[in-house]
């Protein structure tokens, strides 16, 4: 097919603005999938995505569309995640496209993540087509949203497409706009192969499956290709497109989006962002790649059963095949034994990985509270990155500590400005500026410590604005902070996995809250357990878990032996979820206690 | 040589009828169905007849009529069942024949009738000797009636009389419980079963506790009642032989010891359970289903599961388990099985292993935290 009939585009939006529903409608209207094959959120393939109604992985689909001009176009749609944690997925998808649909909810208007994603699209020089969705809702105000897009983002929205993905209104107009306004891909099919890897997936039978956008040349089955970053050479065993299931084709030409497999066993040999070329007739220079996604949040993952350590490592390795942003390395905790310190893009990412490990690999895990990565400047002049609070050096050898700050964008109704500012101030935020999005909403910028964001900033922002505020942030650099390590002692013994780094001004309060929370979480045991919080040698708070009085089945006769056995088995199962730390049994929640305080 | 666990050692007959369901009860018992009693007795006879040949029965096998409220069953119907047991060679020369009774459901005539039928042990559901407490848990009798029932059983010639008591009842205090214990000891029973109240899901009591309309004594108070039970009963010559059971010499419930020794027994009637050493059979729980002939549920007990059950049942007794016998029966060495847990539980003062490593038992402290040990085996 001639390149002039190809259109490559993404959909970008704030979470919940109807992106996946719009993608569903486009697929349905063009008959890409029959009614029978169709299901809601058809591009979201993970169970978790469907359950939570979110998109985590970018997904591609090829759509064939008979346009009003009488020609048939090949549309490659890449659906992208809307959550801040997965911005890097969006940026990769955008590099494979020439255009983007900017979906905005007609009743909500633009939100913090709409902006973040649209700026990414502008960075990639994409043609942006504003789509105002959910126009069937009673609160829809199209004029206002058009004005917002023009004022805040500064792009022409006079020709915005009006849709209701739910009822199907305007879907045809979206397809027409894509055909008319998104430029066809450039590139030359006769030049040496140059294809951008924008995603990859590990398949146990095919090896690594690479998702590519062919820029120049052609990739076909049987050819020998070279990964330009690693220099590794492979023979292509399969080439195909997404419909959205993988369907084999003979070749992918310049301008096209699809996948190929080449019996690549190790995902490290086929990195996302790398350029694929013809090994016999290589391109002279690779395409610009992506910035590597940097983990922002760290936590320890430990198997509840020590014997599951190898299984956990295998599972992490497998997940990493499909998620290059997940990093992990072995660590040891006195309390928890052998485990891994893992880095994530954010809390949602952490949650998702943890849930997938437990669900797909049937592991029971203990997770320590998430923390950011600190820069510790020692008095001897050395600098150290600390991603585990228990490894925080002794205060006497610390010259200063710096912690990551983010630039946060908050969009909220103007009546809540006071609440947002009060909260941000309390969270050690530094006010930067404020602008009006429209007459009723404002956009506020704050510089905030990332640690406060992962602690409870977002939850509190939501509750103090009745859910109306949206938040987006990007890493802004490190700044000095007055931080202290709070240790927790159970039965007089420090438990390394419970240590937390907090700002010195709130150390007293946080220490007290933490021991109170722990007291309520730790089940009563056969003996009394003192729970203490300490900074260095100084105890700042103390609580006691009282001893259990007795624990025995009152009766067991001939008729209830099975039932009593099952009860004991269930209790034992419950105990398995507990971690024996010294003489004390701790439930999983105890390690997250620092996050769950009110 | 035939081992004990290769022969039926106990016969259980379930009588599911009750005048009224107690507020804490989640047993297979039903109120307002007394019209079905005769039909039920006939069905039990039929079951006995058809299953009598299942397994070899030890000549001295005990018999136990439990419920529900077996004392509600007219002596005529009871007689039918007993005749059938004799006819079917399940009732040979029983070492003990127990019948559970509620105070207020029996009189001297009926007690004499029981004696004539060969019943030699009565177990009364007394629960408390405080009228307010009895009322709050939905019992129909008073303290006075309970004491009178015990006295008439003694007068009727029953040398072995037991009473069930409960602590941790709504509104109960350590003082009121001590009174109950005192009266119970003086009542002339030779055996007492003392249970902590368990709030079972789905009972009216559970609902009342969760909506706050009923207050239970706190854990400390319950513990004090538990401690007091042991102290007080031991002092008065009631030896604790199981976690919740206390007896004067020779008054132990031989039938219940069959369960705790994990020996085979047969059960007849709705919800009744049978165990032949390998398989557990549980009859349909609802009276109507049982009458209709609904199939029982069957559970194969694998060796490993059998070992676990034998351990947590055996350890309920103060004399614990005979490890040689366990090894012979299941091929598992309990000490090896426990590995390091054995030493640590002994060190924590929960378990005791006798000098020759023949018997494993819970210490007094271990009985209080029995589940800690039981969980090691399941």
DSSP strand tally of chain A: 33
Top CATH class of the largest domain in chain B: Alpha Beta
Strand content of chain B: 15-25%
How far apart, in Å, are the first and last alpha carbons of chain A? Answer: 60 Å
Arrangement of strands in the largest sheet of chain B: 9-10-8-7-6-5-4-1-11
Major beta-sheet overview of chain B: 9 strands, mixed
The proportion of residues forming helix of chain B, as a percent range, comes to: 40-55%
Portion of residues in helices of chain A?
25-40%
CATH architecture verdict of the largest domain in chain B = Alpha-Beta Barrel
The CATH superfamily of the largest domain in chain B is identified as Aldolase class I
What structural class do you assign from the helix and strand content of chain A?
Answer: alpha+beta
Task: Give the overall shape of chain A.
Answer: globular
How is this structure best summarized?
The complex is a heterodimer of chains A (about 600) and B (about 375). Chain A has about 600 residues and is α+β, with helices and mostly antiparallel strands.
